[in-house]
Amino acid sequence: MYMLEKEDKEARNWFNDKPPKFWSKSHFRTTTKCDMLLNNICDAFNGTKPILRAREKLILGLLEGIRIYLMKKLNQKREDLLKYQGNLCPRIRKLIEKVKEDSATSIPTWAGKFLFQVKTMYGEQFSVDLSGRTCSCRGWDLTGIPCLHAMSCIFHIRENPENFIHDCYKKTTQMRIYEPVIAPMDGPDMWEPTDLPDVNPPNYEPKKSKLNKNRRKEPDEIEASKRKAVEMKKQRREKKKKQVATSEMHDATKLSKKGKLGRCSKCLQTGHNKTTCKKSSNSPNSTTLPQTTQTTQDWYQNATSPSHPSKQINFESTYWTGHINEPSKLNVCMGL
């Protein structure tokens, strides 16, 4: 609190009328075995799809949806526990493995019996009591899982860490938690009638705004989301700059057509193309490309050549004059 007061006195004064047990882990109770500061468990439960779908229904439909969801959930947990072979829960086992690795930074000193003094490589010093399962860092006291200081002491006396974990994380305790069964119920048509008045829903007043299913965010979460949006915008801007720079480097290897005059393929003049050419192809001033023509005599020689004996044609009875520019028409006339 001294550091907070040094940074911002108004923030320090804001905590004056609030009990420390609600916002400081140093004043949390050690009987619950939970070090969570926020109520994320309820938020996670209320954010599930079955609960969100049930919220859209009336009171009876809402309660029935929650009951069915819990009935399935408890049964699924029981089936999973029966199949599980370990003694500790899977997540707790993974957490223990991580604590084992982190305990390498602690050096325990055995004071006697189950009392130890632990010094870390960062200059910190703590006292550990294995019999009382406590550590002055309060990590073991709050969660029931040995902290890295206690883990180094457990390794020093060569004991099994699972023997120092609270019973709430063991399989037997979890089986007792999920042992109760939510009994099935008959439908409304089989309920016994009563003389009590019916429970009618309250008067419905439609809201102008759209129904919001998202939870209300805390002020710090709103600021975090804004910072994240700014960072993403900055990343997109940098990515776009890189793409532009890459395209410029790619264009630098090609010869640009900027400033080059186009040439028309009809009149061979610059400044326009063939679609916008104003000069007709039959005008005397227009310049056209020469076209190759072939006379009938040339086609006759090719058709009667020895290399094509199957295509020899008798032209004696037919007199051809003029030039034929399209050989395909000549083939049609000849019957080829």
From TrEMBL:
Residues 189-257, 272-293 are annotated as: Disordered. Residues 278-293 have a biased composition (Low complexity). Residues 126-158 form the SWIM-type domain. Residues 217-233 have a biased composition (Basic and acidic residues). Residues 234-243 have a biased composition (Basic residues). Keywords: Metal-binding, Zinc, Zinc-finger. The keyword Metal-binding applies. GO terms for molecular function: zinc ion binding. InterPro entries: Znf_PMZ (IPR006564), Znf_SWIM (IPR007527). PANTHER family: POLYPROTEIN, PUTATIVE-RELATED, SWIM-TYPE DOMAIN-CONTAINING PROTEIN. This is Uncharacterized protein LOC104240639. It comes from Nicotiana sylvestris. The lineage of its organism: Eukaryota, Viridiplantae, Streptophyta, Embryophyta, Tracheophyta.
